[in-house]
Amino acid sequence: MNFLQNQFIKYLKNYKLPFFINFLFLFYFTSIFSQIKKDTIALSEITLKGSPIKNVVQNVAASVSVITTADINKSDGIIMTPVLNKIPGVTMQQGALNTNRITIRGIGARSQYGTNRIKAYFDGIPLTSGEGETTIDDIDLASIEKIEIIKGPNSTSFGSGLGGVIQLFSRETPLLESFGKSTVTFGSFGLLQQRLSAGYSDSKTNVFTSFTDLQSDGFRANSSYNRKSFNLHGKQKIGSNGSLSFLGTFTRLKAFIPSSINETDLKNNPEKAAATWAAAQGFESYDKSCLDWDTIINFRRNGPFKPVFFLIIKMLMNPGRLIFWTKK
């Protein structure tokens, strides 16, 4: 019985009311106090994985939004647009499957055909090029377990990015579980997605892998899309104070580009592609591979030591040119 209930009982004793009325008052207010106590729920803490200093989201000074596995599983599993658009202050505009633009608090809105002024990472691997262009639609949703979005400048921790930082984390197999799964998704305009995924986990080893083949004819002319992606993520404990993790991704993309049309065509024939792109059958095509090795060694005095090595290889294949780009 709390302080307010005690005070109320003393009040009833001071005023000589009939016993029945006192009983009704006591029963009524006791029910109210009990209901208030039952409705009080403490929210569980959410630990940020991408922050340089490990902390819970309730204690972070910056504006941080977290997208969990449950949130990702509620989407169609094809595009990330509906997942990010649920976050206040974050907008992702999708044209074709290979053209999108992300803005955080309006930053990046002046970019017409892509995302800039926003940093993105996948398990610490930068998805932002040296020119500041960010591409996250290469990452298959099946390989993402969690997304953390930090709004506002974070140059001290993540480099120059006026809008904010989007951090993607690879999916892991639940502890002491193993599975194999195959899914097929059909949609309008010739959409077909085939996905194979498997995982294994014990007390020391955790492995997750997935392969996805996504095809679509597109709503507009010259907008067909074909992407094959493979993901392999593994962790291995080394002794009692260390661990080794590996991440490998491969993406093969060929996507035709319908480009922009004028207002008249938009109203009368929105399926039409731009005349020059339709005549040339313009497209983008590339193979992209990412490899990442992480070793974590925990020292009792100095804390964890985490050397990270990653390699990104991207081969662009457009008519008349071949470019090989490597970043280490």
TrEMBL record:
The chain crosses the membrane at residues 17-36. Residues 57-165 form the TonB-dependent receptor plug domain. Keywords: Cell outer membrane, Membrane, Receptor, Signal, Transmembrane, Transmembrane beta strand, Transmembrane helix, Transport. It is found in: Cell outer membrane. Its main location: membrane. InterPro entries: Beta-barrel_TonB_sf, Plug_dom, Plug_dom_sf, TonB-dep_rcpt-like. It is a multi-pass membrane protein. SUPFAM superfamilies: Porins. The keyword Transmembrane helix applies. The keyword Mitochondrion does not apply. PANTHER family: HEMOGLOBIN AND HEMOGLOBIN-HAPTOGLOBIN-BINDING PROTEIN 1-RELATED (PTHR30069:SF29), TONB-DEPENDENT OUTER MEMBRANE RECEPTOR (PTHR30069). Belongs to the TonB-dependent receptor family. This is TonB-dependent receptor.
